[in-house]
Structure prediction request, 229 residues.
Amino acid sequence: QSVLTQPASVSGSPGQSITIPCTGTTNDVGAYNLVSWYQQLPGEAPKLLIYEVTERPSGVSHRFSGSKSGTTASLTISGLQAEDEADYFCCSYAAGSTFLLFGGGTTLTVL
Amino acid sequence: EAQLVQSGAEVKKPGESLTISCAGSQHIFGNYWITWVRQLPGQGLEWMGRIDPSDSSTTYSPSFQGHVTLSADKSITTAYLQWTTLAASDTAKYFCAHENARGAFDIWGQGTMVTVSS
Prediction:
């Protein structure tokens, strides 16, 4: 099973916006609008931020938003805050199966 | 508040067997699936497989098929992840999570650290 491709790290200053891409193929990210995003703070369990590409669970800040174009999904964090420093993972179904795939993860540093 | 509570950290020797657990409410176990995720030290997340607690049907990632066993007891709303023969490469943190119908993991356990060392 392929791993979805994410940059290993991104950084930004407080108040700025950053975007984390998640690149897959027509057999996963490009196949369905079923991409989700997770935030993992150090030492904690992951937390669902975005599901179905763009949907935000209740309680998740509006500063987090998702999108997709072709085989690349993206997570955008606006108005960066120090508390946003964490690892971020994307996840998608693999087409033709009910298997799920994670991206390799991106570490966000707030400068 | 809906939650999943996992069993505590384990230290085992290579070749030993192990079962870890994940307990939740009827609301969680009555809807869709419980999935398991592995996180190797300092690494990313890997989807291992899922179980439907209502009928114990399972789906395994090809990467984990044959090496682990998923089970569940719906009467006590608990899911299990089992190894019959541990290896040092199984050293990792294991999370259970509730997987909804749209492939999103909306509730997570706190994780169980498994250390396999001679």
Observations:
- Residues 68 and 83 of chain B are 5 Å apart (CA to CA).
- The helical segments of chain B are 26-29.
- The mean pLDDT of chain B is 95.
